[in-house]
Write a structure and sequence with these properties.
Layout: H1 5-10, E1 15-19, E2 26-31, H2 38-43, E3 50-55, H3 59-71, E4 77-82, H4 91-103, E5 111-116, H5 118-130, E6 137-141, H6 144-150, E7 155-160, E8 163-170, E9 175-179, H7 188-205, H8 207-221, H9 225-245, H10 260-270, H11 277-294, H12 300-312, H13 324-332, E10 343-347, E11 353-357, H14 360-370
Parallel strand pairs: 2-9, 3-4, 3-5, 5-6, 6-9
Antiparallel strand pairs: 1-2, 7-8, 10-11
Helix pairs in contact: 4-5, 6-7, 6-9, 7-8, 7-9, 7-11, 8-9, 10-11, 10-13, 11-12, 11-14
The structure holds nicotinamide-adenine-dinucleotide (NAD) and magnesium ion.
């Protein structure tokens, strides 16, 4: 694979990567003001109409630009605006999408265009996988988290009252077009939440990238466009490489859950929406690094590097006190566990993963040390 570094660092031209999945391969374009590039957008809307799915927050910011750019190419455009929020990633919203598609007589050549963060991307992708047994799907991610993580890899779906992301499908988009200028309007907490997944990619799979993030974290928090474009490109490249090797999470893809076993416990223990997912993952990575050190897989200096970087990204590093027994209970229900034992993604060393079960007393020591 071509490294994105040079293009992304030297100029503001879009960087293009490819997710290699045989006949389901697709490009990722990353750069400023791509939402205005009608020709680029239209290239991935072959044949029929474009139905843009977005929400009430993103629509006033970007919908007219995308719809206008496509209409200027002669494309018929349907606009579908959903309520904003993780609590609306459900059947009701999905049905609103189907209703609008049918009402506008959208056929199986209609391309569904997801304009928004991970909630819109996941829901729209699932709608695309099921409407008329599958229609083309284009991702226009507008949060950092969706640009570095959720728009790549083909996991789509909605929540069920009894569990997050429980209804869904693997369905790859035709393309991902990440307009880095959209990050300018993102609330700071959402930006930091996206940086958690950026740090994760370095920590678990690329120590050099981790060091680059350490050196550039100030620029990333300040949304400096060239640093941001490089981080998005390198993160997409790392995730795309994992997905290429393990599209349906047979094994390797699980390493992307670094920090998530602890993070999911924080999210469900505090009640969803209290901490953002990325905040919980940031703290969870500090805890996973601590656990790695207790097992002798990394030294204390590595734990401190992870903690310092998570903190510099504007993320919490001290875990909430849920009670040790409750903590263990919450981690045990994580859906990735098989046969009862909790599997942890740990560092061995920084930049490479080790998947292992852990002695209960070691886990308790980490919880004692990290919880306040
Ligand atoms: P989100 O989609 O809820 O977006 C966060 C907030 O930012 C929302 O209020 C949104 O309306 C707003 N927003 C979006 N773009 C904006 C912009 N440019 N300017 C200002 N505001 C903007 O949250 P998210 O963090 O992007 O995604 C989280 C979702 O992604 C979760 O549902 C999670 O399950 C899913 N996810 C999926 C995968 C996957 O592989 N499919 C991976 C990670 C996360
Ligand atoms: Mg995550």
């Amino acid at each position: 694979a071509r490294r994105p570094g040079k293009d992304a660092m030297n100029q503001q031209a879009p960087t293009t990567l490819n997710v290699e999945l045989g006949e389901r391969s697709y490009p990722i374009a990353i750069g400023p003001n791509l939402l205005d590039d009608g020709a680029l957008l239209d290239r991935h809307v072959d044949g029929g109409k474009a139905a843009i799915v977005t929400n009430t927050t993103v629509a006033p910011l970007y919908l007219a630009r995308v719809a206008g750019a496509l209409r200027a190419q002669g494309r018929e455009v349907v606009e579908i605006v959903l309520p904003d929020g993780e609590e609306h990633k459900n059947w009701e919203s999905l049905n609103l999408v189907y209703d609008a598609l049918l009402k506008h007589r959208c056929d199986r050549k209609t391309t569904l265009v997801a304009l928004g963060g991970g909630v819109i991307g996941d829901l729209t992708g699932f709608a695309a996988s099921s409407y008329m047994r599958g229609v083309p799907f284009l991702q226009l991610p507008t949060t950092l988290l969706s640009q570095v993580d959720s728009s790549v890899g083909g996991k789509t779906g909605i929540n069920h009252p009894l569990g997050k992301n429980m209804i869904g499908a693997f369905y790859q988009p035709r393309a991902v077009i990440a307009d880095t200028s959209t990050l300018d309007t993102l609330p700071p907490r959402e930006l930091s939440a996206g940086l958690a997944e950026v740090i994760k990619h370095g920590a678990i799979l690329d120590a050099d990238y981790f060091a680059w993030i350490e050196q550039n974290i100030g620029k990333l928090v300040a949304r400096e466009p060239q640093a941001m474009a490089y981080a998005i490109a390198r993160s997409c490249e790392i995730k795309a490489d994992v997905v290429r090797k393990d599209e349906r999470e047979g094994g390797l893809r699980a390493v992307l859950n670094f920090g998530h076993t602890f993070g999911h416990a924080i999210e469900s223990g505090l009640g969803y929406g209290n901490w953002l997912h990325g905040e919980a993952v940031g703290c969870g990575m500090v805890m996973a690094a601590d656990l790695s050190a207790r097992l002798g897989l990394v030294g204390a200096a590595t734990v401190e590097r992870v903690r310092a970087l998570v903190q510099a990204a504007g993320l919490p590093t001290v875990a909430p006190d849920l009670g040790i027994e409750r903590w263990i209970e919450l981690m045990a229900v994580d859906k990735k566990n098989e046969g009862g034992a909790i599997k942890f993604i740990l560092l061995k060393p920084l930049g490479s993963p080790s998947i292992t079960t852990v002695p209960p007393e070691t886990l308790r020591a980490t919880l004692d040390a990290c919880v306040k």
